[in-house]
């Protein structure tokens, strides 16, 4: 089972270079499992035992099973994750022509580690909005092949590079796509028109706009002398999206179960489709009891916010509290912060720890050092928006926000097992 899950994750990562592609990939897997798409602009007809999913902005998705047990009696079980990862986004007027090279101006999305982006085989993917036959439409594109690179400056020309070199995102990150001959000029929108025609077999009248990201074409893989690790882009947080999906597909039809995978977490979640927006509450209000019944249902519910945790790095062990250094392949991590950067409390942490013990899943704890700042997740955001009890957890990883991250090859199976137990639990605290 572990090998099958890991290969499934690798396939999902490779198929999901952007939040748009991740959402499409999740939707395809849900459709295959019998989930029915609900259009937010149309009336909904749902029933106990039904399986449904909703998308917004093509980059966020909520999937749910309505249990035979009334949610007002048993509450709902929610697992939350996010579809976005730090990356380089193409600017609206990106064409740069310097020294005979065609480059694209980029904007850094989220808190990316920039150094690992150099000397990688990069491709480009995302959503393109265009006009065809007088109508405005959108489609996803993916160049798949390596079409760009950001070459490092040779050490001979920058002798201080290994002493810590501050990367200037404006000047040093524009990828090189091609060399231009003579007076040849670059037209990025023309390139996108050609890609649309190749992928979707039509000619657009005009490319109007786009949301496109560069990504590393190297496949995710199981690595290590004893295959102890999974290496790949966007493990934060597509790993949790995939684990939540597998658990939801395995859930019984007894209880109401929800998987929430939203965009824009890396930039604060404040958007129409982010965790700090109205999407989740609007969806739940359409399928749960009204008024007093809605509040009663939410207060009987619990959310597991699943986002990656910082594993203790052997080269930088001093960056962790000595009693709270999560290890790779030692199970999911309960994340705790007294200042509410995580939404975990003793009751929700205790319940998650109970689930792990009952299902023989190893479990760890993480608290950041008292002299360091703490990151956050969708957990506190969702808890404050919805009023739902929440526990923040995640799998330990290295190189978070790098172009290629590292997780333990045993941990995905641990996470799927405990999330499945959560979805199938009859009694919540």
From TrEMBL:
Keywords: Aminopeptidase, Hydrolase, Metal-binding, Metalloprotease, Protease, Zinc. InterPro entries: M18_aminopeptidase_2, Peptidase_M18, Peptidase_M18_dom2. Zn(2+) binds at residues 82, 156, 401. The keyword Protease applies. Its EC number is 3.4.11.-. Its cofactor is Zn(2+). One of its GO terms (molecular function) is aminopeptidase activity. Belongs to the peptidase M18 family. This is Probable M18 family aminopeptidase 2. The lineage of its organism: Bacteria, Pseudomonadati, Pseudomonadota, Gammaproteobacteria, Pseudomonadales.
């Amino acid at each position: 089972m572990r090998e099958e899950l890991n290969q499934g994750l690798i396939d999902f990562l490779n198929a999901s270079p952007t939040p748009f592609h991740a959402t499409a990939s999740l939707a395809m897997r849900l459709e295959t499992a019998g989930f029915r798409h609900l259009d937010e602009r149309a009336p909904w007809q749902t029933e106990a035992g039904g399986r449904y999913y909703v998308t917004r902005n093509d980059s966020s998705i909520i999937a749910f099973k309505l249990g035979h047990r009334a949610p007002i009696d048993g509450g709902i079980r929610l697992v939350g994750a996010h579809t976005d990862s730090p990356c380089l986004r193409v600017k609206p007027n990106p064409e740069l022509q310097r020294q005979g090279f065609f480059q694209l101006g980029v904007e850094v999305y989220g808190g990316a580690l920039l150094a690992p982006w150099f000397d990688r085989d990069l491709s480009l993917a995302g959503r393109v909005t265009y006009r065809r036959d007088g109508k405005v439409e959108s489609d996803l594109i993916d160049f798949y092949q390596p079409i760009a690179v950001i070459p490092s400056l040779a050490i001979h020309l920058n002798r201080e590079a290994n002493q810590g070199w501050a990367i200037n995102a404006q000047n040093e990150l524009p990828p090189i796509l091609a060399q231009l001959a003579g007076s040849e000029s670059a037209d990025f929108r023309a390139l996108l028109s050609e890609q649309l025609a190749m992928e979707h077999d039509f000619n657009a009248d005009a490319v109007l706009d786009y949301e496109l990201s560069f990504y590393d074409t190297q496949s995710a893989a199981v690595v290590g002398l004893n295959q102890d690790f999974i290496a790949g882009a966007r493990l934060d947080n597509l790993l949790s999206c995939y684990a939540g999906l597998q658990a939801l597909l395995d859930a019984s039809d007894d209880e109401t179960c929800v998987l929430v995978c939203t965009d824009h977490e890396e930039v604060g979640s404040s958007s129409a489709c982010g965790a700090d927006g109205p999407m989740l509450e609007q969806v739940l209000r359409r399928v749960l009891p009204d008024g007093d019944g809605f509040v009663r249902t939410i207060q009987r519910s619990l959310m597991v916010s699943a986002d990656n945790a910082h594993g203790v790095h052997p080269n930088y062990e001093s960056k962790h509290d000595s009693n709270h250094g999560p290890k790779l392949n030692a199970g999911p991590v309960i994340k705790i912060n007294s200042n509410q950067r995580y939404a975990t409390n003793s009751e929700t942490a205790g319940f998650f720890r109970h689930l792990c013990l009952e299902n023989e899943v190893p479990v760890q704890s993480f608290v950041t050092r008292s002299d360091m700042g703490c990151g956050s997740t969708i957990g506190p955001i969702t808890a404050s928006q919805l009023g739902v009890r929440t526990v923040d957890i995640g799998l330990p990883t290295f190189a978070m926000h790098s172009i290629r991250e590292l997780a333990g090859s045993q941990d995905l199976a641990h996470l799927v097992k405990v999330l499945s137990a959560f979805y199938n639990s009859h009694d919540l605290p």
